[in-house]
Amino acid sequence: MNTSSTSAPSSQPDHPVRFTPALARVVATVSVGFVVTQLDVTIVNIALVRIAADLHANVARLQWIVDAYTLAFAVLMLSGGVLGDRYGARRMYAAGLVVFALASLACGLAANPALLIVARALQGAGAAAMLPNSLALLNEACRHERTLRARAVGFWTAAGAISIAAGPIAGGLLIAAFGWRSIFLVNLPLCAAGLAATLTWIPASRREDAAPAAADAPVQRPRSLDVRGQLLAVVALTAFTGAVIEWRPLGLAHWAVWGGFVLAFAAGAAFVVLEARVEAPMLPLAMLRNRTFSAAVLFGVCVNLTYYGTVFVLALFLQHARGQSPLQAGLTFIPLTGGFLLSNIASGHAVARYGTRLPMIGGALVAGLGYALLIPVGANTPLVALLAAFLLIPGGMGLAVPAMTTTVLASVEPARAGTASALLNTARQAGGAVGVAAFGALTGSGSAAQVVSGLHADTAISAALLLVAACLAWNMRADVAHPAQAPADVQRMKAPRRDKRAYE
């Protein structure tokens, strides 16, 4: 399927776009990147106790092993999106698969916590190249058509849900049979298959296969990489997350903790000032003036912060407080992770019929109820009592996240799809890193009593944040698309009323 065209890009195809076998192959190919990035969230949590015993890592080092991946993923996501918009999403997606595979090999060979943390950060760099560009490829393959994109995003997120569901079980089985290192080595054949499919099934974009311009053609200046902006974003997010992780073991009075917060604030302020002044910013601040776009991004922060943080605490709870083995904990996680599959697919149909706001509101409220049901859980609570919560959390999130992603892609011009996707997922991964850091700090030294107490605080905070997320979705403008993504007749009707400055 060739998604390129010699004419100016239009928001809608001349003829209705169907979910063809060629499109299905594109969806399957770009889903591989999402699968491996999500697999390394749940599968690593199951291995934490074994890693701690083998490498002599305390809770703070375990947090860094989880957050080194999430943090690098977050801080480099915008760079991955900008590079994809400039050099081609296909190239960056393929490069991300290669980096992720090599980093996974390094994780499997790591001899101490420091090396494992560095290798996990490299995994995050590969994931940052894959994720935003997988969505950009998906958006381009659907020709930005709203209904088709909603279905495709639903299948894309469902693929990630399968990996999330399989992660704890696969992790438990691999650890029992081959040890914890095998959970990283399993990524190698997955990445190899994804790379082969990318080179075979994903067509080159216009910028990748275009012929050289004529001598008298106007010179098109490439988008700036905004290196200073990228460095400031890396410094701000790394300093903030590191300060949160080390707050509990070192104390707020320690220079590394308060210094980290000060550095994060200064770098963040400098980033905003710089992005407002440079000619071609990595993060166009005008995007954030779009109320729908901003609300969807904040919604994603709430969702990831609560889920990533809770999964980390639950992994410690099941193994430290309840004494389960990694395999037993993985089996216990099945409802919590497996519930994403059906709800992700259902979300695509719900968005096509009802728009994005209702699935986001309903999903946030359902997931929030699931967190609330975990507040009174103790070490001796029967596992069956956790079932309702473990089904409601993924059920609600699975309904809301595809709708949120569709909202973001629809609210920007197609040429900015990679950057918009990168910004959304940067915010989400940063939220996840903060969730692990903050909720992990609530477990103290990791004793059974402290883990249970931390779980109570974690789930209460999560329920409140999901209520905030529902309010954010409620206040969004109802299914407003960027002018370039709306049909021509709708553009003509809405053009007099649209604030063009919001889409500069």
From TrEMBL:
It is found in: Membrane. It comes from the Bacteria. Keywords: Membrane, Transmembrane, Transmembrane helix, Transport. Residues 494-504 have a biased composition (Basic residues). The chain crosses the membrane at residues 26-52, 64-83, 92-111, 150-177, 183-202, 231-249, 255-274, 295-317, 329-346, 358-377, 383-409, 430-449, 455-474. Residues 26-481 form the Major facilitator superfamily (MFS) profile domain. GO terms for cellular component: membrane. Residues 485-504 are annotated as: Disordered. It is a multi-pass membrane protein. It holds the Pfam family MFS_1. GO terms for molecular function: transmembrane transporter activity. InterPro entries: MFS (IPR011701), MFS_dom (IPR020846), MFS_trans_sf (IPR036259). PANTHER family: MAJOR FACILITATOR SUPERFAMILY MULTIDRUG TRANSPORTER MFSC. This is MFS transporter. It comes from Paraburkholderia silviterrae.
